[in-house]
Write a structure and sequence with these properties.
Strand order of the largest sheet: 1-2
Strand content: 5-15%
Number of helices: 8
Order of helices and strands: HEEHEHHEHHHEEH
CATH architecture of the domain at 45-74 and 143-253: Orthogonal Bundle
Number of strands: 6
Shape: flat
Mean pLDDT: 86
Low-confidence stretches: 271-280
Distance between the termini: 74 Å
CATH topology of the domain at 45-74 and 143-253: Cytochrome Bc1 Complex, Chain D, domain 2
Oligomer: single chain
Amino acid sequence: MKNGFAIFFAAFVVLGGSWCAFVLAPELQLGGAKQTSVLNSSDVYPVQRSGDATLGLQVYRANGCAACHTEQVQQEGISFNVVVISEGKNPAAVISAMGVTEKEFLFGLNKDTADKISDRITAAGGKTEIHVNATGPDISRGWGLRHSVAEDFLYDYPVQSGSLRAGPDLAGVGARLPDANWQLLHLYAPRSVVKDSVMPAFKFLFDVRKINGVPSPDALEIPLTQQRNEFAPPAGYEIIPTEDAKNLAAYLLSLHADVPLYDAPFTSLAASTNAPAKKP
């Protein structure tokens, strides 16, 4: 009897501890998550997806897209750029204070070095801004501008963060590939727009119809370079996306995890007209 009670108690502790770790703790940490403020802005983030994009999330889920794509940009660190926005009345002194002869060399610095260079330039009469950059392989590939955070998924159910990258991460695909026709072409025939794509074609989300008089305004626009290849429909026919295809494209276009947040900061160069161009 004593052994039975000990076994029951041990099992209760193990199961209770597991429940606390995997259910209660995440609920306490994220259960009250809500919109947050965009850095240096009065805007809030995220906003609810449009109706067609919300429906598209279910199409994305139903077709197992998360089996090959993630929506979680990784970040390894941050670096700093010192941007000279004014050389003041003594440009020579400012250039000397910079310690280099070209402004573009003030990229990829650590915080202490950026602060010291900025202080020297300010003391010489110039004005600077220090820009924050996220760093890491995902950032270098152009998959995002900063790491993914819980707020990015606030209005998604179920969350499709994924765990395998047979294809690229999609957290910011709507920002880097904003053309709806491109997205639909990619779904219909992936290798028509990405030569070496391993993605399967989702042709079942489209109808191939004979053109009766005037072409449909919803028909895919086939580029001239592809109108006579294996991806194009037969002469006199057109490719019409179904509602599921259009909703899925709308969902992909809504993936814009590209605003700076308190827990995921970066400085948008587009926000500063004086910001130097990125190094090639």
